[in-house]
Please model this.
Amino acid sequence: MDTMLDPIDALKSDHEAVKVVLGNLDGYLKKIGGQVSDPLRKNLINQLNEITSFIDKDLEIHFKKEENALFPVLGNYIGIETGPIHVMLIEHEQSRQLSKEFKNAISEYLSNNKYENIVSSGDSLIQLLSEHIDKENNILFNMAEMQLNNEEKNKIMEKMRSIK
Ligand SMILES: [Fe+2]
Ligand SMILES: [Fe+2]
Model:
């Protein structure tokens, strides 16, 4: 099977893009929480917009590819209500919640100049998503490689392409 047509390879490649953004976010948060002048801190916080827009658009599309294309088909083999897919779904919701808290913390900073919540919610989001990606890469996707046949993979890929 052409690797570009393999849905698991496509999702793994999304994960690499997410990891780059999380690395950038970590760099921003370390500076924001460190010894910097107020104007520089404000400037750094303004630059978080590109990261929140990645989370709102690209990460959300990635979650939908998993939730609406991969999980229903893989769920036929390993179940959805319990087990690894269930855990992944809970973590997607936790990520959505943390991303809301992160964005709220950014808007609150604009009114009260407190940056601590930006750093703490951002750090929590990095930790959650890093561990989530590791679990998918090392556990869930291995299960998918073992269970899914080419016909199912094609069907998943086709569905993933329709998600925008
Ligand atoms: Fe996921
Ligand atoms: Fe994922």
